[in-house]
Amino acid sequence: MSADQVIMVGGGIGGLGAALMLAREGVKVRVLERAPEFGEVGAGLQLAPNITRMLDEVGVLEKILPMSVKPRRLVFMNAKTGEELSHLDLQDAERRYGGPYIVLHRSDLLNALLEAAQAEENITLHTDHKVTDIEDTSDGVVVRTADGDEYTGQLLLGADGLHSVVRKEIADDEPVPSGYVAYRGAVPVEDVDRRMGMEDVVVWMGPGLHLVQYPVRAGKLYNQVAVFRSQEFLDGKEDWGTPEELDRTYADMCEPVRVAIPSLHRINRWPMADRNPLPTWTKGRISLLGDAAHAMLQYLAQGAGQSLLDGAALARALPTLGNGQWDGDALAGALRQYESERVAAAGAVQSTARVWGDIWHVDSYVPMVLRDEAFRRRDTYDYHLVDWLYGPVRAGADDGADDGAESAAEVPTPAHA
Ligand SMILES: Cc1cc2nc3c(=O)[nH]c(=O)nc-3n(C[C@H](O)[C@H](O)[C@H](O)COP(=O)(O)OP(=O)(O)OC[C@H]3O[C@@H](n4cnc5c(N)ncnc54)[C@H](O)[C@@H]3O)c2cc1C
């Protein structure tokens, strides 16, 4: 049996984050990444207090804060009328939840994780290693790559994203296409015709579309994500969500939204898909994390953050097994502990993200009027809709609104709607 305890398939934010957190608890991890180098797409990422609190505990937050922006507000706008409907005060949210809300470039997070992983002697990193074959031999796992390399270990973790090959060992399902497509990218701030300030995350909600804007890399770059429901997809066209359709879809929106669209990169587009929640992520000595376990639509801006929470939960569960050969029953117990922390919690975020998308994208008149009215009536300091996600609420930080941890069950969050 090899010295590896964990073989991690995939070195994205989820895989590298989990490898790092496990290694720091003394677990030996080999990461196999199929790409020629570790990297991320050139776009931004939001990390909410439920994630930054944990990143602070594992010493990663201080590494990424200098490249991040702490926005003042998360603002919801009507993309057609230009009306500001509601906002979250993110400084107040930081006090309430004990962690900042930050936005940053994906590469800045990935590179911070990579640098920390490279410094860990318990981690071995490989690129150009595409895993094609997996075997659970009951006292271990064997993994083979496209180039014919073979590795053995005691546990295989699939962190290989939306189209995970590892997930096929656990579930017989496929990604669920949403019919929405995203264009995104972070560009120098001076290249954007921008009508909103640099201090906010702005979400423009429109009929079958939304645009998100925020600064990254300490304010040097501006990130934009334009998403829309593709009629070309509904019409069954093979090439759907084209740049021409992007322009057509946004042509009707208010001026600050329209002027943002030309600065979006046109070369890449991302057809949006998620997965249905699974009741278990584990089979024998194989388990999942990140998008491989719980790919979600991005409307709660939680996918990468949730993958980091998976890593933290694994790092609590696995080190209890010690340094020797991991007994199968003990490993099963540790993975049950991991799952009890994470499966239902991540599943709720997956399901809620779908509902949240439906609310943002309503496209007939009456539902739109009702949505806007509900947003307008929301008090800035009413945290009902996010306590369950960003909480628990810090002692003494509650302003009289419901306490997140205790009241999550009685609050009508979208998850329960
Ligand atoms: C438009 C958009 C906006 C988003 N915004 C946010 C946000 O603001 N906040 C947030 O938290 N999340 C956000 N997300 C979600 C986030 O991007 C993902 O949840 C996150 O990147 C998942 O990380 P991962 O490591 O699990 O998977 P991935 O990033 O997909 O990484 C998987 C890795 O596995 C490798 N791999 C795949 N197959 C193999 C194989 N066979 N062998 C070896 N390696 C393999 C891949 O090359 C890749 O490096 C957004 C997503 C989208 C699409």
TrEMBL record:
Keywords from the named record: FAD, Flavoprotein, Monooxygenase, Oxidoreductase
UniProt cofactor(s): FAD
Residues annotated as domain FAD-binding: 5-349
Superkingdom of this protein's organism: Bacteria
A molecular function GO annotation: FAD binding
SUPFAM superfamilies associated with the record: FAD-linked reductases, C-terminal domain, FAD/NAD(P)-binding domain
Protein's recorded name: 2-polyprenyl-6-methoxyphenol hydroxylase
